[in-house]
Amino acid sequence: MGKMPMPAPPPDRSQLDERRQAFGNRLRDARHHVGLTQEQLALRAGMDRSQYSELERGQRDARLSTLLRIERVLGANLSFVVDGPAAATGDECGGPTQAAPYGTDSGAATPGAGDIRGPAPGRPD
């Protein structure tokens, strides 16, 4: 058997800080899009407001279970908050799109929370 390839080196501190800040900015934008305060989102995601605030400020790493709870509250695709809107929507501009009311297939867990991915495939706008 051949040699195993060397793993990629970890990102340096400045790269991590930049990614955390960009992630936090997108998280904040998504929260604003659905009209929630940090306190409301944190409560609905089962976390402390100060912990959530640290995520938005790029000062905390999030566990996958935390991200999935936030995703559910926002009705947002996880790829949106991690990689940006173009990754989730396929839209080069990447802006938030259609709002989906509570109880739709969007996964939104709050009344009036929008699905920033737009309508589900095969569903009318």
From TrEMBL:
<dbReference type="GO" id="GO:0003677">
    <property type="term" value="F:DNA binding"/>
</dbReference>
<feature type="region of interest" description="Disordered">
    <location>
        <begin position="1"/>
        <end position="20"/>
    </location>
</feature>
<feature type="compositionally biased region" description="Pro residues">
    <location>
        <begin position="1"/>
        <end position="12"/>
    </location>
</feature>
<dbReference type="Pfam" id="PF01381">
    <property type="entry name" value="HTH_3"/>
</dbReference>
<dbReference type="InterPro" id="IPR001387">
    <property type="entry name" value="Cro/C1-type_HTH"/>
</dbReference>
<protein>
    <submittedName>
        <fullName>Helix-turn-helix transcriptional regulator</fullName>
    </submittedName>
</protein>
<feature type="domain" description="HTH cro/C1-type">
    <location>
        <begin position="27"/>
        <end position="81"/>
    </location>
</feature>
<dbReference type="InterPro" id="IPR010982">
    <property type="entry name" value="Lambda_DNA-bd_dom_sf"/>
</dbReference>
<feature type="region of interest" description="Disordered">
    <location>
        <begin position="89"/>
        <end position="125"/>
    </location>
</feature>
